[in-house]
Amino acid sequence: MMAACIKAVGGKTRIVWVKEHAFPILLVASDKHEYNLKVKPLLNLLFTDIYEEDFGVVQNEEGIWLNFDYTKSYPGGPFLNKEVIKLIKI
After folding, report:
1. CA-CA distance, 79 to 71, in Å (whole number)?
2. Owning domain of residue 75
3. What angle do CA 58, 24, 50 make, to 5 degrees?
4. Helices in the chain by DSSP H: which ranges?
């Protein structure tokens, strides 16, 4: 549902399917420079008490994706490092 809402307002999303779980990811930057300039400062501001370097972020040929799995109180959750079964385009 979160991925559909993001797509409805113009965002680019995917669903990541791992063993026993699925979660949305959102394209947040086209490259590392854009991510460091625009996204990283915002994440640092929003999650100052638990911010870690590049948490919840995955990069591929399309750009940099932020994990929107909120099984914890911040992007990433415990499923980020699981083996991906399928990446579903929406």
Report:
1. 9
2. 2-89
3. 60
4. 2-8, 32-34, 40-46
Cα–Cα distance, 40 to 85 (Å, whole number)? 28
pTM for this prediction: 0.79
CB neighbour class for 45 (10 Å; exposed up to 12, middle 13-18, buried from 19)? exposed
Polymer length of the chain? 90
Total domain count, the chain:
1
CB 26 within 8 A of CB 11: yes
Q: What b/e string do you get for 76-87 counting C-beta neighbours within 10 Å, with b at 16 or more?
A: bbebbeeeeeee
Kindly give the confidence (pLDDT) of every residue in the chain, 90 residues in length, as a single tens digit, with 9 standing for 90 and above.
888 888 999 999 999 888 888 889 999 999 999 999 998 888 888 877 665 655 677 788 899 998 887 776 666 666 666 788 888 888
